[in-house]
Design brief:
- The protein has about 575 residues and is α/β, with parallel strands linked by helices.
- Helices cover about 35% and strands about 20% of the residues.
- The chain folds into three domains: about 140 residues, Nucleotidyltransferase, domain 5; about 190 residues, Nucleotidyltransferase, domain 5; about 200 residues, Carbamoyltransferase, C-terminal domain (DHBP synthase, Alpha-Beta Complex), CATH 3.90.870.20.
- It contains 19 helices and 22 strands.
- A ten-stranded mixed β-sheet has the order 13-22-21-14-15-20-16-19-18-17, sandwiched between helices.
- The longest helix is centred in the middle third of the chain and has 29 residues.
- It is globular.
């Protein structure tokens, strides 16, 4: 069974191809149209995924769309008066977009099958079931509890469920306008950042203040979790449900928390304390929601998905703050991952069988061989080029020598975090690394941390975490062991934590070999890993993207496969 999954008209649109329950290719549209958080119909991603899978539209059995516009018929459209479209229009717009991409042109009829005789059926999957599909069918669990918490879907903002095999039992639902995700987004906007984009800046800022401050009790009053795991927001403090008002918080919120921060204003201790209070309320609220889920299921394993699962600080505390002993979060719990989830969910529905459990990686994007990288570099007449027998060892030596390294290898990652195939790497022992990377490449706020990528076999030596902890997607934050922090100052956050990536040799052999070589040279099994992109741009996708970014910033060395380029 061949299924094309898409999510569109969301903050990061994407497409994927699933064949017999296996993700063959998956790409966010932003990587191809080079518009960060692209929300256009993912035509480029669809074409690229089909090419990578060796398929045409005519080969598909079905198309899964990660939003059900029929549900939007049940809601009043007043909130869409100033929007580009009412989502019900997707019932016609999605087929129309595919017709534009079809090679068939009859011209005299409006029937989908007349215009495109071998057109696969289009199925609109409930957005939360697309999230569920992403969560459970990419997990290693055959039975688990499931929590979906985000900003909003067609009408839901939270769902608790029990999963086994291919069966879901929905236990609790919370509907719009009560939303933990939108509450967090509103405070993100209040603090001068972009909602639905910069929430992780607030999460990072929260580490600079004690949560036990004058804003904690007022913040606690804004959110209430019911006994069954549902939740309610004190709506009088917010305006996010009034779509015609761009301001997401109300005058009452301002009266309680003071004047909002302008985007270009300095960040003060007051802003840090508000962020800390928000993060504390978020963590305690999520713990209450998941504790209720545990009481209703009795299971030891939970998968967490939806935009709120991007909060890696809470993810790292989940098993200590709730009765669950194991948790799983995919590389793409945000809306971009629902293209994959919709396709996997539909496969399970149609076949009656669970998709096979795959290795824990997300390398589903375009791939360029060493030979192709060499050809592209030769074509643009780049100076200071060499072919190296062992790029991992050579790159490790460059890091030890103090170079900022661009690292472009294998298939591109799917998700908002670079995991060693489209990365910028730095020696984590450097005390000036944050300033150097920000000045040369990233141009981002100084309070935001950089991530440690660590050999999976060395995680327990460096981090305070449960035995057997594996963090393949940078999805969890853990505290460094106190005696280790001074060795890697570049990747230790203000509160002594790190959002780590545990690198496994089986799924990422070249990146693992690089870190192992660095370890052999320095005794440190960690490198600083940040995404390979310039400020305001998406992560690089092609060698051409990497070359342009390399020569537009302060990187010293670039590895395209086994091609080494030095400035």
């Amino acid at each position: 069974m061949k299924i094309l999954g898409i999510c569109h008209d969301v903050f990061i649109c994407s497409a994927c191809v699933v064949v017999d329950g296996v993700v063959v290719s998956a790409i966010p549209e932003e990587r191809l149209d080079r518009q960060k958080m692209s929300s256009v119909f993912p035509k480029r991603a669809i074409d690229a995924c089909l090419r990578a899978a060796g398929l045409t539209m005519g080969d598909l059995d079905e198309i899964a769309v990660a939003w059900n516009p029929v549900i939007d018929l049940e809601t009043t459209p007043a909130g869409y008066l100033n929007a580009r479209r009412w989502r019900v229009e997707h019932l016609t717009q999605v087929p129309a977009q595919f017709l534009k991409m079809s090679e068939s042109r009859a011209g005299v009829t409006a029937s989908m099958t007349d215009l495109w005789p071998d057109a696969p059926p289009i199925t609109y999957v409930d957005h939360y079931y697309a999230h569920l599909g992403n969560a459970v069918y990419l997990s290693p669990y055959d039975e688990c509890a499931v929590a979906v918490v985000d900003g909003r879907a067609e009408r839901r903002t939270g769902m608790l469920a029990r999963f086994r095999g291919t069966e879901f039992e929905v236990l609790e639902e919370t509907n719009f306008p009560h939303s933990l995700g939108l509450m967090y987004g509103a405070v993100t906007q209040f603090l001068g950042f972009q909602p639905d984009s910069d929430e992780w800046k607030v999460m990072a800022l929260a580490s600079y203040a004690d949560a036990e401050n004058e804003y904690l009790e007022p913040m606690r009053a804004l959110f209430h979790v019911d006994a069954g795991g549902g939740f309610r927001v004190a709506l009088e403090f917010f305006e996010y449900f009034n779509f015609w008002d761009r301001r997401m918080y109300s005058d009452r919120f301002v009266e309680t928390f003071g004047p909002p921060r302008g985007r270009d204003d300095d960040i003060t201790e007051r802003h840090q304390r508000i962020a800390a209070a928000l993060q504390e309320v978020f963590e305690v609220s999520m713990a209450k929601i998941l504790t209720a889920l545990h009481e209703r299921t009795g299971l030891e394993r939970v998968v967490l998905t939806g935009g709120c699962a991007m909060n890696s600080v809470f993810n790292g505390k989940l098993t200590s703050m709730t009765p669950f002993r194991e948790c799983f979060v995919t590389s793409c719990p945000d809306d971009s991952g629902t293209a994959i989830g919709a396709a996997l969910y539909l496969h399970a529905e149609r076949s009656g069988t669970r998709p096979p459990i795959a290795p824990l990686h997300n390398y589903w994007g375009p791939e360029f061989s060493d030979e192709e990288c060499h050809r592209i570099v030769a074509g643009v007449k780049t100076p200071n080029v060499s072919i190296v027998d062992d790029p991992s060892s050579a790159a490790a030596a460059d890091l030890v020598a103090g170079a900022l390294v661009g690292w472009f290898q294998g298939r591109m990652e799917f998700g908002q975090r670079a995991l060693g195939n489209r990365s910028i790497l730095v020696d984590p022992r450097r005390t000036d690394a944050k300033d150097v990377v920000n000045a040369a490449v990233k141009y981002r706020e100084s309070f935001r941390p950089f991530a440690p990528a660590i050999l999976a076999e060395h995680v327990p030596e460096w981090f305070e975490c449960p035995p057997g902890t594996h963090v393949p997607f940078m999805e969890r934050v853990f505290r460094f062991r106190p005696e280790k922090m001074a060795e890697v100052p570049a990747v230790v956050h203000e509160d002594g934590t790190g959002r780590l990536q545990s690198v496994d040799e089986a799924t990422s052999p070249r990146f693992h070999a690089l870190i192992r070589s660095f370890f052999e040279k320095t005794g440190v099994p960690i490198v600083l890993n940040t995404s390979f992109n310039l400020s305001g741009e998406p992560i690089v996708c092609t060698p051409q993207d990497a070359l342009r970014s390399f020569f537009s910033c302060g990187l010293d060395v670039l590895y395209l496969g086994n091609v080494r380029i030095e400035k």
